[in-house]
Predict the structure of non-specific serine/threonine protein kinase.
Amino acid sequence: MSTLVGMQLSGRYRLDAQIGAGGMSTVYRAFDQNLERRVAIKLLHREMSSDSDQLERFRREARAVAQLSHPHVVGVIDTGEDENRPYIVFEYVEGETLKDRIRRLGRLPVDESLAYAIEIARALGSAHAHDIVHRDVKPQNVLLDPEGSAKVTDFGIARSLRDDGLTADGRVLGTTDYVSPEQALGHDVDGQSDIYSLGVVLFEMLTGDVPFGGENQIAVAMKHVREDLPDIQALRPEVSATTAAVLDRMTDKDLAHRYPDVPALIADLEDALAIEAARSGTSTGEATAVIRTLPARTQRRLPFRMRHSIPLLGVLALIGVGVAIVAILAGIGDVPERVERGTGPGRVESTPQGTKTVSVPRGSAQDYDPLGDEEEHSEEANRVVDRDDGTTWTTETYEAGIEGAGKAGVGIYIDARPEVEAVAIQVKTPKPGFKATIYAAPAGTAPKSVPDGWTKVGGGTVKDKDQRFKLDTGGKKYRYYLVWITDLGDSDSAEISEIRLFQEVAA
């Protein structure tokens, strides 16, 4: 099929590159020469085109999906045939798939996982309302656009799901990692099957892996029929009981106990997202956007600052300033005393003289546990660079201290890409008393152990809630700056709310 690259369909669509392929069809990135825009085209394989049943199913399902108009569904633009090759034209989504994201990052933040599940569920709900069952819900079929929003694609188009049985080269099952029990058994499926598959996708987002493995597709499919999914809270302890209960109901083998429809599922997913966000006090990634779409009854679970937009909070702040000014003017004779009592640092952040803060993006922090399981609350890591003192990254609990766990230390590092000569570091914590050594490493991949590849540039005891250490880099620029915690003091864990680097201001 690669020889089709460069050809034109119907004198309009130029096939520029193959971007996907399956047993029934091939997907190309194409260019619509009439409207001068990129599109994606799914082209039915020629051998399938000669099967009248497959051809009619392709045409019928293409017409059905074309009726969908939803922000989380990849839209169908056009359909046609060229030399007996049926094709469907979709909007082209620039970005990665949800599967790519999981492979790249491993397990996703809990709130982000729920946010994507909500967006996918909303897309499925729209399809089910049009009597369309996806039948192949998996992260490979979820595209993430440049804004991070999820868009579901491949609504069962050009796939036979009933005719050939379990062993027909995967035609019925597709990717069995996500197959529902009833679909694995060859039964007719409805929207509840999509709900089960979405539950498996949510499990993978939360854990970084699918629940079952096996020697072949049939072995995996039978595990979906016979075995319960592993306990999510055992694999991801920070997941709330509410989220765990929603996941359990999504993937219940018994259809009478599984969610009956998508609206019921969405309501519980939205509640779970609000609860998770309220527990952490913050939101990450796409969760921030989804939280704004939650119904009012659900948003009431959230802290005030998460329920209201920045402009509203700004108005309230201005009102507060106005009230303060009126109060001062009303007692003008006491201005010196009032001003003296009112002075203080407040929320204003100061920088060491002659320096400026190094700007690092959200996503630049990484937990570091090379001597353990290489996991130290990774989902919390970016809280140290979110400019919010109310959120913290926390080490695991070490009741016998770090040494008692057989470790020399654990830590968290900042990626100051491409490189910077930092002269100071600020470590903010609600729980001072721990000791930390500050290391730095050059561009490339972050070193996998301490001290190999790292250079000591500072450190000491974090005595205050706002501790600053001078750094001695020897005039060198480094990309990574590691806060390596070696002693927890009187506590069994360490917490860090913010880490900031400072560099000298150019003369």
In short: DSSP finds 16 helices and 20 strands in the chain. The first strand starts at residue 8 and ends at 9.
